[in-house]
Please model this.
Amino acid sequence: MIEAGSKPSDFIREIIKEDLANNKYGGRVHSRFPPEPNGYLHIGHAKSICLNFGIAAEFGGLCNLRFDDTNPIKEEVEYVESIKTDVRWLGFDWQDRLFYASDYFEQFYEYAVQLIKAGKAYVCDLSADEIKEYRGTLTKPGRNSPYRNRSVEENLDLFDKMKAVEFEDGSRTLRAKIDMASGNINMRDPVIYRILRATHHRTGDKWCIYPMYDFAHCISDSIEGITHSICTLEFEDHRPLYDWFLDELEIYHPQQIEFARLNLSRTVLSKRKLIQLVEEGYVSGWDDPRMPTIAGVRRRGYTPESIRIFCNRIGVAKRESLVDLALLEYCLREDLNKQVPRVMAVLRPLRVVIDNYPENLVEELEAVNNPEDPGMGTRKVPFSRVIYIEQEDFREDPPKKYFRLAPGREVRLRYAYFIKCVSLVKDKQTGEVIELHCTYDPATRGGDSPDGRKVKATLHWVSAAHAIEAEVRLYDHLFVKENPGDEEEGRDFKSFLNPKSLEILTSCRVEPGLAGAAPGSRYQFERLGYFCVDSVDSFDGALVFNRTVTLRDTWVKIEKAQIK
Ligand code: ATP
Ligand code: MG
Model:
């Protein structure tokens, strides 16, 4: 792990330094981020984005954004747009280098023809199931397809007809002619093209044959002059194929380097799984603030800086690991603490009447915006006879070590006065405490007593007559299991969803200065956590706040309590 701000160093950067020293690509560094537009980006993608764009920036190179859009069935324009928004929001710029694999369809086709002419590819009539059966297993070699020895002329003719919509979907494929006995199953005559009558989001109905990932990816890298093609470990076994295609085609050859993908505790980082949560209604959408998507954490109030700092801290390695979500939240708190103004808000209000405070008096008290940064100044907060405090800041029978308000006890109101609880009012039916009566000491204005008297607690509050009502959404981890992606007990990952991941509070009160707070603006609610104005559901006059993160990691505390 490396510290924020310091320059990252890892095995990929070492490889690049060596390549630069050896003038391997004429001193160039050119990377790319190649998402498939079949879902929204998540924090795992952020790791790849920070790595690819980060390396380009550090070594004076370039980084392309390339949509790997070779599968027309699962891809949509909505995803393309969301990905562009998210990469930009994270703070990266592809300048004029926005590419689509679909831009190269013609070129892919010509390279496929070149392979056929070289006797390195053939049209195969086996069905998908038969191909699978012929492929063999890890311990058993595969068998040659009966169509493997077709002549070049026949293959060219059949491939041309595949393209000309003359055959049924799935009835034929174009396959690379490599080695059905290879120890690497990816090398057992992999499919290069399939027939698929599907409308592509960019090329429409122009094509009815589509290239497979392994074929399209290395050629796209080659066309764009990529030097270091960085991808996740699951592609390690595909590297021989990446190299084979480029060698056989005798075209420019980038090098593929694999690193371990990010796994985060208490969430899932897989588009296939995230799409289920969206489509089956477990969350409100891709941007639900509980989702680990970039759109979700943005709506929740995360800053792009905090994600970049996190990605630098976790570093890049060759071995899979599970990173604790607490580390991401730590990076977030550190960043927010410096830049976000503090305000007072009461989530579960308890009415307090200060009996000896003048009936019609309103005082404007001075409050500090951020004690970490005096430059952020101060503001005025109104104080009056009736205020709200947090229900949990009062106990009728305080347990040991509970120092907040209780009958007969004195506490400090932040920026205001000492108050002492003299009596309480209960709901006749439920017995619940609904109102406190207190007295205040006018000599303690500003929060200190001239006689040196001490109190053990400082509470936040809002003036009842001035506060604005707001809705506050409290989020907790989406999953109760440490690693919900680990389904080995035979249970579906969704069975580990946290039923308490969202709590909505509708009669919260916030200080009047927050009237008209702009969507997306962030605050620290004193003693409660960091919150941001929801960018979808909040309106002037009907404020909605999302809790971005608590002030401390309460989860760690809960877990410790459970272990005891
Ligand atoms: P998912 O597994 O979520 O479906 P994917 O790998 O299919 O993701 P792509 O759109 O192909 O999604 O990913 C684009 C790039 O992001 C790839 O280079 C991929 O290796 C990288 N990437 C995806 N998930 C992670 C992750 N968890 N950590 C780091 N990099 C990732
Ligand atoms: Mg992928």
Observations:
- The chain has 13 helices and 27 strands.
- The chain has a mean pLDDT of 95.
- The pocket of magnesium ion (ligand 2) is lined by residues 36 (CB under 6 Å).
